[in-house]
UniProtKB/TrEMBL annotation:
<dbReference type="GO" id="GO:0003700">
    <property type="term" value="F:DNA-binding transcription factor activity"/>
</dbReference>
<keyword id="KW-0238">DNA-binding</keyword>
<dbReference type="Pfam" id="PF07729">
    <property type="entry name" value="FCD"/>
</dbReference>
<dbReference type="InterPro" id="IPR036390">
    <property type="entry name" value="WH_DNA-bd_sf"/>
</dbReference>
<dbReference type="InterPro" id="IPR036388">
    <property type="entry name" value="WH-like_DNA-bd_sf"/>
</dbReference>
<dbReference type="InterPro" id="IPR000524">
    <property type="entry name" value="Tscrpt_reg_HTH_GntR"/>
</dbReference>
<feature type="domain" description="HTH gntR-type">
    <location>
        <begin position="14"/>
        <end position="81"/>
    </location>
</feature>
<dbReference type="InterPro" id="IPR011711">
    <property type="entry name" value="GntR_C"/>
</dbReference>
<dbReference type="InterPro" id="IPR008920">
    <property type="entry name" value="TF_FadR/GntR_C"/>
</dbReference>
<keyword id="KW-0805">Transcription regulation</keyword>
<dbReference type="Pfam" id="PF00392">
    <property type="entry name" value="GntR"/>
</dbReference>
<protein>
    <submittedName>
        <fullName>GntR family transcriptional regulator</fullName>
    </submittedName>
</protein>
<dbReference type="GO" id="GO:0003677">
    <property type="term" value="F:DNA binding"/>
</dbReference>
<keyword id="KW-0804">Transcription</keyword>
Length: 226
């Protein structure tokens, strides 16, 4: 029994490759690695405090997932986002979130809704008071409502598919912060979504969610030259 518990703990502990993978992803999200920038195994290994081997495997994984590109004789680089990337991701995201809300609207509790509302209202109050909002904090709060809709869905496949695209969705949120931080409008739209959830009004929620995602996409296309 003791050996089984030890084995279970070992399987639950993140591998060095997974830690390297998560670490590099975070560096990309936080814009410590820029599009078109060469990835250095030595520098990444030193930063993540590990050997080059797991870093190399993590880079290969990110390359296989399409986030990095290898240029012969030059090395591996972070792929820049394209108009096609943005449009394709948003099409999938919109379809998945609209399906997810069909069941999650009945699973999300009032307490969970009010917790997200309180976070959004606090952020808005600080912004209106003149405080400079950190881009990472804004990005995380921006995704709270959407994450709740996806995670509370009864459709497990939606969660799997959304996990695969959320990395780029997070990158787009950071870009939105830079190109045009309309925090008031973004917060207003998220509060509308929360109202729809609390009312358990599925038709109204779908319409508001679709409008919000279309607005987010148009914001990117309006301000970015991708």
């Amino acid at each position: 029994m003791g050996e089984q518990n030890i084995l279970l703990k070992k399987t639950q502990k993140p591998s060095y490759v997974q830690r390297a993978y998560d670490g590099i992803r975070n560096l990309i999200i936080e814009e410590e690695i820029s599009p078109g920038e060469l990835l250095s195994e030595n520098q990444l290994a030193a930063y993540l405090n590990m050997s080059r081997t797991p870093v190399r495997e993590a880079i290969r994984r990110l390359q296989a997932e399409g986030f990095l590109e290898s240029r012969k004789g030059l090395g591996t680089f972070l792929k820049p986002l394209t108009t096609k990337d943005v449009r394709n991701i948003y099409e999938v995201r919109k379809a998945m979130e609209l399906i997810a809300c069909e069941t999650s609207i009945y699973q999300i509790t009032d307490e969970e809704i009010e917790a997200v509302r309180a976070s959004l209202m606090s952020l808005l109050a600080r912004h209106e008071a003149g405080e400079e909002i950190d881009r990472m904090e804004f990005s995380k709060l921006d995704g709270q409502c959407h994450d709740l809709i996806v995670q509370k869905s009864n459709n497990g496949y939606i969660k799997i598919l959304m996990d695969q695209i959320y990395f780029n969705v997070d990158r787009y949120r950071i870009i939105s912060f830079h190109v045009s931080l309309d925090l008031e409008e973004s917060t207003r739209q998220h509060l509308v979504l929360l109202d729809c959830l609390k009312e358990r009004n599925l038709e109204k929620l779908k319409a508001a969610l679709s409008e919000h995602l279309d607005w987010s996409l148009s914001l990117l296309f309006k301000h970015l030259e991708l």
